[in-house]
Amino acid sequence: MIKILEKLSDGIKNFRQEEMARLPTLTLPYERRIISRQRVQLDNGSDAGLFLERGTVLQEDDLLKSESGEIIKVCAADETVSTVYCDDRLMLARVAYHLGNRHVPLQITKGFVRYQHDHVLDDMLHGMGLHAKVEQAPFAPEPGAYGGSASAGHSHKQSHDHNHDHSHHH
Predict the structure, then answer these.
(1) Ramachandran region of residue 55, left (φ > 0), alpha (ψ -120 to 50) or beta?
(2) What's the rounded Cα separation, in Å, for the pair 152 and 34?
(3) What are φ and ψ of residue 34, in 5° steps?
(4) How confident is the prediction along the chain (170 residues), in pLDDT tens digits per residue?
């Protein structure tokens, strides 16, 4: 089994296109690209284990280094997603706002917003006059605002035990 120990911070900068094309690949959906320690199978059929630093999120074209020095390229698998295509940037900002309020990981580009398929969210956007296209595509959400994964949730947990008001006043 190949032991994958490191995500290279330089990524693809140090590789030419023809070198990249020859690298072994690891294709995973988003839900598996946020797990830093797991057993995987490379696209060539080789068994491998990810032993990455906790909290590591893998993105398309990230490069990994094995214990033996082998370099492996990460690919984002096609998965069921909902995509809102729109040329109106204000409308896309509204879509991102409403989905963000539901703490949904989002892929945001100039022409679309994409999230993991959820018919309830699709219906919400339909109520805004938009159509969410359900399709098979790679999902590459924005990383978390505080340096964590895109799936890192918002929390109001308090771990201290002194007595004062934690309510939100608006």
Answers:
(1) left
(2) 10
(3) -100, 5
(4) 999 999 998 766 777 888 888 999 999 999 999 999 999 999 999 999 999 999 999 999 999 999 999 999 999 999 999 999 999 999 999 999 999 999 999 999 999 999 999 999 999 999 999 999 999 999 999 887 655 544 444 333 333 344 444 444 44
- Per DSSP, the residues of 55-122 read T----TT-EEEETTS-EEEEEEPEEEEEEEE-S-HHHHHHHHHHHHTTT---EE-SSEEEEE--HHHH
Tell me phi and psi for residue 3, to 5 degrees.
Answer: -100, 115
Domain CATH for 97: 3.30.70.790
Angstrom distance (rounded) from CA 49 to CA 61: 18
Of 41, 76, 111, the last residue of a domain is 76
